[in-house]
Specification:
This protein has 145 residues and is mostly helical. It has helices spanning 13-16, 19-44, 56-61, 66-86, 88-107, 113-136. Residues 1-8 have low confidence and may be disordered.
């Protein structure tokens, strides 16, 4: 098996013009920035009143208030964004799993089905990012020489 070519850190001119690589870069950027921004906003509630998106049954099982839960959720979202930046193959799967949890929450909260459907589209995009990362940002198991 040939080992020639460029690594994920130094893409060739040919790789940069590859539409699949471009899709990888766009998805990696969005799934890095968006979770971090949304996670930070859980502390400020500038974009929306985040506790209103928490299903009552979840609010009943988490300690503290709905806002306390949002602080914890914000930390998880920030960590997920950082994971996508550093190890997109696994970070994207973390984001997909997180989105599945959000979808479950929204489906049990009346009136947010449109947001759940949007988040399902994001989940599919996160899985696509994980698949693209298998090629463009593989996790190396070989020792560097």
């Amino acid at each position: 098996m040939s080992t020639e070519g460029h690594t994920a850190h130094t893409p060739s001119r040919e790789t940069l013009s590859d539409p699949a690589y471009q899709a990888f870069v766009v998805l990696r950027t969005v799934f890095t920035v968006a979770p971090i921004v949304f996670g930070l906003d859980k502390f400020a509630n500038l974009l929306t009143d985040w506790p209103a998106y928490l299903a009552p049954w979840i609010n009943d099982i988490v300690p503290g208030s709905g806002q306390d839960a949002m602080y914890f959720i914000g930390v998880i979202e920030i960590a997920a964004g950082v994971a996508v930046a550093l190890i997109p193959r696994y970070g994207a799967l973390l984001v997909a799993a997180w989105l599945a949890g959000i979808i479950l929450n929204l489906l049990t909260l009346s009136g947010f089905y449109d947001v759940a459907l949007r988040d399902f589209g994001l989940l599919v995009a996160a899985v696509a990012l994980a698949r693209l990362a298998a090629k463009y940002a593989p996790v190396s198991t070989e020792k560097k020489k």
